[in-house]
Amino acid sequence: MTVFHATPVFRLVIALGLLAAPVIPPLHAQTHPGQVALVREVARDTGKSAAALNRLLDGATRQQSILDAISRPAEAKPWRDYRPIFMTDQRIADGVAFYREHRALLEQVGRQYGVAPEYIVAILGVETNYGRLGGKYKVLDALVTLGLYYPPRATFFREQLKVLLELPDNHLAGPLDTLLGSYAGAQGWGQFMPSSIRDFAVDADHDGRIDLRNSLPDIFASVANYFAGHGWVRGGPVAMRAQPDSAATPITVKDSKPQWPLEQLEAWGYAPLAPANPGEPSSLQALDGAAGPEYWFTFQNFYVITTYNRSPLYAMAVHQLAQAIDAGVQQADATQ
């Protein structure tokens, strides 16, 4: 057998080759299931530091109270129980006062985006009681919990977590790991999810930052821009009470998207209780009211509100609060 003896030159070549070999860092020991893949995607798509992203996620905590909260949403209540949560004398009075205090800015934003100002105010009233209740959960904890530990809606919430990690710093009201919001990860006075911040939030005060917690111009314009971007019809109707006759055709709808001209619903036995355009694209909602079943024609602008929260109960609460605020503002103006 021939024994090979490496020459000094050969040994040098081997050493240089080893030195030139790529050094592969060990994988980060993930704190949450799916963290490695998520960080890889965000780092690839944004160029952000994987180490910094891992530090953020390592600091997030799975919250059982968030999993409990999402299993019992208020929208599961019947309308007779849901409506009193938002349609209170105090919330209406506070909305009227808020509108009148910020009237110039609200009406300027309303004209710019074609959205009635009372609906901007009503969204803030329903979502955070006009900024008083912004949420108690860390947004990062909420989206980690729902995106990585809640299989029924993991696809949606993981995408929201990814978008949150991808948002530029100037799209947030503060450091990402300090932001507070709802159990679902919505933040600011208008409770925007990360994808809504990305797609619809506006730097209306032109200070180089989108601040949905401290800047009223940004808050108002972002809500209005969201509505306009989803197809709000300037001056269009939202909802109108309907009266069925004894032979009315039962109607089931899967969502609030307008499906028929109003005259078709009339032909099926549902009469409008106020003058209406017979050709207006419409749908029908049946709600379990305090005095029995309530029937409502709903239109494109109602559908737009359901893109904010898909529950028709939510959209009806926003609509009725907006109408009450508008009536209160007009009454206050008339008595001045």
From TrEMBL:
Keywords: Signal
Pfam families to which the protein is assigned, alphabetical: SLT_2 (PF13406)
InterPro entries assigned: Lysozyme-like_dom_sf (IPR023346), Lytic_transglycosylase_MltB (IPR011757), MltB-like (IPR043426), SLT_2 (IPR031304)
Superkingdom to which the source organism belongs: Bacteria
Signal peptide per UniProt: 1-20
Ranges of residues in domain Transglycosylase SLT: 37-323
Matching NCBIfam families: MltB
Stated name of the protein: Lytic murein transglycosylase B
Gene from which the chain derives: mltB
